[in-house]
Amino acid sequence: MKVTKDQHSLAIGTGGQNVRLASKLTGYDIHFEEAEISDLDEAIRKAAQEEAEAPSRAKEEFEKLFRDLG
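Now predict its structure.
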């Protein structure tokens, strides 16, 4: 499982309690790796990209609407 550096100790838990419980509940051995980018970082990047593309998409939709009417 990949976790960000700042979440690594939280995922493991005090004395490994969280990882042991998760392993017991799932029946899998769980190993952690530090991830380069967190899901939050990826979500922020994706939102910024969508925001940057929004004007061109809006223009395309506007033009399509009038093409469909004509």
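The chain has a mean pLDDT of 81.
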